[in-house]
Amino acid sequence: MDEQIRQIGERIRGLRDALDLSVEDMAGQCGLPVEQYKQIESGECDIAVSTLQQIGRKCNVPLDVLMFGEEPKMNAYFLTRWGTGISVERTKAYKYQSLASGFRNRKADPFLVTVEPKPEDTPIYYNTHYGQEFNLVIEGRMLLSINGKDLILEQGDSLYFDSSLPHGMKALDGKAVKFLAIVM
Fold it and tell me: Which of 33, 61, 178, 181 makes the best surface tag, with the fewest CB within 10 Å?
């Protein structure tokens, strides 16, 4: 698995150790099956940003610390220049670029997300997490499925939704899609 995913798993394992929790206790607190949690810690599987956010919220640790190993420092403002945000490529198909990683105690997590195309018959991976989410397509087209409803979003389209509903996406037309995702 990717080196960045392995490092994220190590940070999560370190957090669990620091909190003196068993694997079972940590998985239970985060609402994850024990086997899935073990795979996350070992870096054997991809981990959704929303799952990292859920772990961070449960353990009172900023998402940045889990994703990037860096503690946010700014509390008045944080400027991210185009192309310079800290990024993590969860898989070859998803790249997340944090747009506010240095801002402390933020209420939302904005990301520039790039999703690479997959073969048409590839199933959509569904995710759920606490809160709400806003997506704005910057480039390309994507299929966004929410709670069984398939929506096609094109450049300039946006969608705000309850992220506790099962949702997933895929790039369309054999091209990558870039979108702004704000997870709250």
Answer: 33
122-170 pLDDT, tens per residue?
999 888 888 899 999 999 999 999 999 999 999 999 999 999 999 999 9
Tokens of 63: 């998402």
Residues of the chain with CATH 1.10.260.40: 3-68
CA distance 126 to 106: 26
CA distances 29 to 24, 33, 127, Å, are 9, 10, 18
Q: Are strands 109-115 and 177-183 parallel, antiparallel or unpaired?
A: antiparallel
Within the chain, which residue ranges are assigned CATH 2.60.120.10?
Answer: 87-183
Q: Which CATH class is domain 87-183?
A: mainly beta
Q: Residues in the chain with pLDDT < 70?
A: 1, 88-93
Exposed (0-12), middle (13-18) or buried (19+): which is 50, by Cβ within 10 Å?
buried
Q: What is the pTM of this model?
A: 0.72
Superfamily the domain 3-68 falls into: lambda repressor-like DNA-binding domains (1.10.260.40)
